[in-house]
Design a protein that fits this description.
It comes from Oreotrochilus melanogaster. The protein is mainly alpha-helical. It is built from 27 helices and 7 strands.
């Protein structure tokens, strides 16, 4: 009624000569106040939404940084970690349709606030197993844990071990089995990540449409660009937080840190992975608070009140004197949607568009490549180059992610600066993928050789291993020792060879305790180093070769350039998607695109990448109650070829589909087909007819949503 009274006042003033009085002055002042309150309200919403984007991006990237920590803490293989990582997409898909359809009709800010609470609850649930599953137990020789009892690592028989020590150790194992037999605590991590996906669902669709509905037309793109920019900053802080927590021991605050005999450089080290989730959960709660106090609707700007093309929602807004006709049209439209009369023809029309179909296939395969590569990139750096989890996360957060952000910005800038048409966008997207994967090919030559591990990568005589490792773990030098092949307590001999345990190294004595433990009279060390009479070893594996630090530096340089190159093609590819579909199918096409990426890439890629990585394991850990645990040692060469090879094969296949997209576009840009594309029958886009449309709406470059682009490294 307030808007209609203003319109009547304006209409009356145009047709009647009246002196300027206080009433007209008051109406102008009230209009200016309304404009100021509208601008102030939308700016508050943009600031709050930016903080929410930061919070969800931080939590998502922090999960990526803790993949190896979770794997070691729960003693699970990489394939199972992939299932946990993909559960976020499953949660998102469960309610995306309900939220997208019914959310716009309800109180959007409060729904976003409720989503933040659910997201924080899921984040807290991920950290909960730390408080219920007991303290972390790593494999370590008894004398290294308790210096008051002197035990020889090489035990000819059990009589050499004090009975009290054996009973105590066996009692701990039985107690641990009783505690672990009833539950698998990693399920809580999976459910928490699933809950995170449910809570994150309303943020993007409802938040962006709210800005688009109530922001001034020329400011909408700027506001959405600010939100997306802040979202890219989130992963930087997420990986840096992961780097900080990885340096802290997992049970910090619960145990005496002086009693810990391993450091953050040890392969058995597990950082305080749970601490970052508590921090991320608190940030999510704080981010959701402002939305409970924001209004359901804001006053529309003057330029948007009578607009019919400002947004999809405004297309169905009619004048106030046609309110009954409006509600009737909406009821008819909802009834038609419920019957599904338009769904199948729209779907057929969409998939009958060759450009859309080919680009969808190319995107699905490329995102399979990128998601798998990003998920296991921390593990690859740790295992291939012998880096700690802390340093790995620091490097990714401080170097790789800024390169991705700069690449996305550069792609949009190139499109706007040179006013590239649809055909040029296809070429730019194809060139970005081609050169990016070409650079990735060079990483095959930038790997480290396997560490010398007696019985696994080399024999006890110094030659390369040729027999099965279970049999090769025993040799003449340790045949008199009672050793277990399930133990993983590596020591470094003075000959530069790593031994799985002090017992398998044939060590007869030790002194000191903790990380300063030194083993003496190791018969297997003396086999390879006959000139030395001491045959000693220290706790922890030996460092990788001298060339490995140099290779790691080369890897970082190429990785940053590759990340930037691949990211440049993100925005042009998305513009290609928007320009080559019929306007009335745009929302439907984007929904199908996002759904396909999540279902066919976001969920399966981490799983089969994890399965492939598990095939390169040389030494599996064992759980306290039996059964296979997490992998302790990977074959560096096999891991490199499997990880990079799978990424490159998928990327190459996506390039072939991109070439097909370019071929169809070239064919459709010919004169005979240009008329068909103008009528909208084919759905393919002509470059000449689309160029002006692109220039007139180039603000879409800033508003495009590349699924999970803030974590694509």
């Amino acid at each position: 009624m307030e808007i209609s009274s203003k319109e009547n006042t304006h209409f009356f003033s145009k047709n009647t000569i009246l002196p300027v009085d206080q009433s007209s002055f008051k109406s102008e002042s009230s209009a200016s106040k309304e404009r100021q309150s509208c601008c102030g309200g939308i700016k508050i919403f943009v600031g709050a939404l930016s903080f929410v984007y930061f919070a969800k991006a931080l939590a998502g990237s922090y999960l990526k940084s803790t993949i190896t920590q979770i794997e070691r803490r729960f003693d699970i293989p990489s394939s199972l970690v992939g299932v946990i990582d993909g559960s976020f997409e499953i949660g998102n898909l469960l309610i995306i349709i309900l939220v997208s359809y019914f959310g716009a009709k309800l109180h959007r800010p409060r729904i976003i606030g409720a989503g933040c609470l659910i997201m924080s609850a899921g984040t807290f649930l991920i950290a909960m197993p730390q408080f219920f599953m007991g303290r972390y137990r790593y494999e370590r020789f008894q004398s290294a844990i308790n210096s008051t009892v002197s035990i020889s690592p090489c035990l000819p028989d059990k009589s050499q071990t004090p009975l009290s020590v054996l009973e105590k150790s066996q009692g701990k194992i039985n107690a641990g089995c009783e505690k672990e037999a009833g539950s698998s605590m990693w399920i809580y991590v999976l459910l928490g990540n699933l809950l995170r996906g449910i809570g994150e669902t309303p943020i993007q669709p409802l938040g962006i449409t709210y800005i688009d509905d109530y922001a001034i037309g020329e400011n909408a793109a700027l506001y959405i660009g600010c939100v997306q920019t802040v979202a890219i900053i989130g992963p930087i802080f997420g990986f840096l937080l992961g780097s900080l927590c990885a340096k802290l021991y997992v049970d910090i605050g619960f145990v005496d840190l002086e009693s810990i005999t391993i450091t953050h450089k040890d392969v058995q080290w597990v950082g305080a992975w749970w601490l970052g989730y508590l921090i991320a959960g608190v940030i999510s709660i704080l981010a959701g608070i402002p939305f409970w106090f924001l209004p359901k609707q804001l006053a529309k700007p003057e330029g948007r009140k009578d607009s019919n093309t400002s947004s999809e929602q405004s297309k169905f807004i009619t004048e106030d004197n046609k309110e009954q006709h409006k509600s009737y049209q909406q009821q008819v439209k909802i009834a038609e949607m419920a019957k599904g009369k338009d769904f199948l023809p729209s779907l057929k029309n969409l998939f009958g568009n060759p450009v859309y179909l080919l680009y969808l296939c190319a995107s699905i395969i490329q995102f399979n490549s990128l998601i798998g590569m990003v998920t296991y990139k921390p593990k690859y750096i740790e295992q291939q180059y012998g880096q700690t989890s802390s340093k790995t996360n620091f490097v990714i957060g401080l170097i790789n992610i800024p390169a991705v952000a700069f690449g996305i910005f550069s792609g949009g800038l190139i499109m706007k600066k040179f006013r590239i048409d649809v055909l040029g966008a296809a070429k730019l997207s194809l060139g970005s993928s081609f050169f990016g994967y070409l650079l990735l090919l060079s990483l095959f030559a930038m790997g480290c050789e396997n560490s010398d591990v007696a019985g696994l990568t080399v024999s006890y005589h110094g030659t390369k291993k040729t027999t099965d490792y279970e049999q090769a773990l025993f040799s003449e030098c340790n045949s008199g020792c009672l050793c277990s092949t399930n133990d993983w307590d590596p020591i470094c001999g003075e000959n530069g060879v790593t031994y799985i345990s002090a017992c398998l190294a044939g060590c007869q004595a030790s002194n000191s305790s903790g990380e300063n433990t030194v083993f003496f009279n190791c018969s297997c060390v003396g086999t390879l180093n006959s000139s030395s009479q001491s045959s000693s070893a220290v706790v922890g594996p030996c460092q990788k070769g001298n060339n490995c630090p140099k290779m790691f530096l080369y890897f970082l340089v190429i990785s940053v350039i590759t990340s930037y190159t691949l990211s440049v093609g993100g925005t042009p590819g998305y513009i290609l998607l928007l320009r080559c579909i019929n306007p009335h199918l745009k929302s439907f096409a984007l929904g199908i695109y996002t759904l396909a990426i999540r279902v066919l890439a976001g969920i399966p890629a981490p799983v089969y990448f994890g399965v492939a990585i598990d095939t390169t394991c040389l030494k599996w850990g064992s759980k306290r109650c039996g059964g296979r645990g997490a992998c302790r040692l990977y074959d560096s060469s096999s891991l490199r070829y499997m990880y990079l090879g799978l990424t490159l094969v998928l990327g190459t296949v996506s390039i072939f589909f991109s070439v097909a997209v370019l071929w169809v576009l070239r064919k459709s840009s010919s004169p005979p087909d240009e008329t068909l594309s103008a009528n909208g029958e084919r759905g393919a886009c002509g470059t000449k007819s689309r160029r002006e449309n692109f220039v007139s709406s180039d603000h879409l470059i800033q508003t495009t949503y590349w699924p999970e682009r803030e974590t694509r490294l």
